[in-house]
Specification:
Layout (H helix, E strand, L loop, with lengths): L3 H12 L10 E6 L8 E9 L2 E6 L8 E8 L2 E14 L8 E10 L1 H27 L7
Antiparallel strand pairs: 1-2, 1-4, 2-3, 3-6, 4-5, 5-6
């Protein structure tokens, strides 16, 4: 049986298999293991094809599973995710907690959609930084 450090290293490696971007995207979630769950609304802080970070007032246990829906460019991505980390935010923050979740069940089509979305966003950011530094005159060259 693997020790806890080996498990954490594998989890870290897995989380870094996909690039992430910092975007605020609308989400909805509910407990996956509850018969008639109450739907919660929130906003992401970052997203990758393996998971996301989001803030919320609702208390979620570590290792709890949630059903999540994310709106990206008029597409609703649905997945089941596991809460892997929770930190309490300062009292001055808008929400009480910040959660890191990993997608546990997500269709390859949705995962590919997120990969493409992240890639396009990174490309756009790089272009904007380049043109801000070297000027817009190069756009038409």
């Amino acid at each position: 049986m693997e020790n806890k450090e080996e498990e954490n290293n594998k989890e870290y490696e897995q989380r870094r298999n996909f690039y992430r971007i910092y975007r605020q995207l609308p989400i909805q979630f509910e407990f996956a293991d509850v018969e008639d769950p109450e739907r919660q609304h929130g906003v992401t802080q970052n997203i990758s094809a393996s998971g996301m970070l989001f803030d919320h007032d609702y208390f979620l246990d570590i290792n709890s599973n949630i059903k999540i829906s994310i709106e990206i460019e008029e597409t609703t991505i649905q997945a089941v995710a596991t809460v892997i980390d929770r930190i309490e935010l300062p009292k001055s923050a808008k929400n009480k907690y910040r959660y890191r979740i990993n997608f546990k069940k997500i269709s390859p089509r949705y995962q590919d959609f997120i990969v493409e979305y992240v890639w396009k966003q990174q490309l756009d950011e790089s272009k904007n930084q380049f043109y801000a530094k070297y000027g817009d005159g190069l756009k038409n060259s």
